[in-house]
Amino acid sequence: MRFLDYIFYRSTRFYKRWGESHPEISGQFIVWFCLGSFIISIINIFLYVRNIEVQHYKTILIVVCIPLVIICSLVFSSRRYVRMHERWKDEKCQGVKGWLVFGFVVMSFVIYCITVNYKP
After folding, report:
1. Has this prediction a pTM greater than 0.85?
2. How far apart are CA 59 and CA 80, in angstroms?
């Protein structure tokens, strides 16, 4: 959970510096996107290994994404951001850690695209 907290903190901080009016919502979206893409990728790999054909793929997306949106909305809030800011405001190597978070978000998207579009 601490890794997700850090992703939320860094993405919210990024959008806050850009002057967005509600950066916590953008941070929630980033965490939701990363979690959702990894869970769906794992499901796709499982379906591929078991050679299971899915007729209604949108149902899987809905079943995975709706609970994640609700959980991210409840767990990651502006109060939580303030607590995280107090914990990580004086961290070292901010630039490197920021690029690692960015790389994680990009890799989430890449892995999702590969597993969704891969058909033998």
Report:
1. no
2. 32
